[in-house]
Amino acid sequence: MQKSMGERLRAAREAANYPSATKAAEALGVSLSTYRAHENGQNEFSAEVANRYAKKFGTTAAYLLTGEGVRKTERPAPNIVMSFDPDEQDHDGFAESGDELSYSREHWKPQIQGATPEVDVKLGAGSGIVGEVINLPVGSGNVAGHKIVAEWLIPTGYLRNEAKASPNHTIIMEVVGDSMQPTYMPGDRVIVDLSQNQMTTDTVYAISDGYTEPQIKRLQRVPFSRPSEVKIISDNPALETFTVELDRLTIIGRICGHIARK
Questions:
Q1: Which is nearest to 144 in space by CA: 154, 156, 136?
Q2: Which residue segment(s) compose the domain that 33 sits in?
Q3: With a threshold of 0.70, does the pTM exceed it?
């Protein structure tokens, strides 16, 4: 057992494969100085903050605060959703105030009525890039979010009827890298529905392993696999296909549309 809150926090961060306090602070959406003060033991943290850290690092608030209780928690197995209809899904895919950082439109208000936001995150067709993360004041606390770099006017009817996306849960992301060529080229934008954050069928998703920058990949379910496995496929034929267990994968959202310069 670690001797202090800060030492337990550092051990939990390292066990969750965050190599540095800087990476952890970025993922949590908190300032580096605040996080370092907690990990170095300069400042103690509250139960609310401990709960947030625990969710990100796969441990429990009780362990971080006292050293007692369960040290490691397991991620729940994902559900398989068989519909693209936004009205048939009973989840919103968003983190509540104080939860871990997620890609969310919950507290964003457009400057242009009806616009869809482009966030400061680039989907890697290779490796992705997370840009500026900001803290938005909500009530008595803060909610982490990504900076909006542009607003796109995409008709609601197109999003709902053609793209099969939920207009209120849709964001735009830029593609970088070449692993999804020729389907998706560097500089292209994609429409991502954050509410479709579970494996639905074999198609293209924005994904992450829960620790690294987001990527755009084609997913294909492996039939009859137990536990469920998926193939992570790059459209570039020169690159390798990987197979992983589905519950190790974080699905940010389904790619519902493609904006390209052609």
A1: 136
A2: 5-66
A3: no
Question: In the chain, where do the E strands start and end?
Answer: 116-124, 129-130, 133-138, 141-146, 148-152, 170-176, 189-193, 203-208, 215-221, 229-233, 242-245, 250-259
CATH code of the domain covering residue 214: 2.10.109.10
The beta-strand segments (E) located in 62-167 are 116-124, 129-130, 133-138, 141-146, 148-152
The b-or-e profile of 140-165 (16+ CB within 10 A means b, else e) is eeebbbbebeebbebeeeebbeebbb
pLDDT at 81: 31
Q: Are 25 and 32 in contact (CB under 8 A)?
A: yes
Asked whether residue 144 falls in the same domain as residue 40, the answer is no
- Return phi, psi of residue 257, to 5°: -165, 165
| Alpha-carbon distances of 56 from 32, 53, 74, 99, 198, rounded to whole Å | 16, 5, 12, 9, 19
Contact of 208 with 250, CB cutoff 8 Å: yes
Same domain, 41 and 128: no
Q: pLDDT tens digits for 142-170?
A: 445 677 888 899 999 999 999 999 888 88
pLDDT, one tens digit per residue, over 27-40 is: 787 888 889 999 99
Q: Are 228 and 127 in contact (CB under 8 A)?
A: no
* Mean pLDDT score, 201-218: 84
Cα(125)–Cα(180) distance, rounded to whole angstroms? Answer: 5
CA distances from 259 to 18, 175, 233 (A): 33, 10, 21
CATH code of the domain containing 44: 1.10.260
CA–CA distance from 247 to each of 2, 110, 221 (Å)?
29, 34, 12
* CA gap 233, 218 in Å, rounded: 5
Task: Indicate if 112 and 178 belong to the same structural domain.
Answer: yes
